Amino acid sequence: MNITGLSEQWVAGRIKQKGDSKCIPWKNLKDLILAHPDTRKKIDVFALSIYGLVVFPKALGHVDEVVTDLFDRLDKGVTPVPAILVETFRSLNECRRAGRVDSLDVRSSS
């Protein structure tokens, strides 16, 4: 809500439950980017969308509510490093469970 500058009703009307996460559909964010009168807000929503869709995808075509909370904290000067590490670990763990990552070897090969 803080990122978009819109009312709580606008946000609440667009949140969808996807599995165990609450998400906002990309289509709603795209429409907001195209129509929002504030250029700074457009850039913020676009960055949020890219981050949510590419870096930490949870549900295809949706941005997880957790990602929006992270972006909200960035505006308040809170460091995102712990949250990014947690989300990275969670994403890699989900990939491993789904069989998309066989092994992660962080040791250098000699």
Automatic annotation (TrEMBL):
Span of domain DUF7745: 34-98
Name of the molecule in the record: DUF7745 domain-containing protein
Phylogenetic lineage: Eukaryota, Viridiplantae, Streptophyta, Embryophyta, Tracheophyta
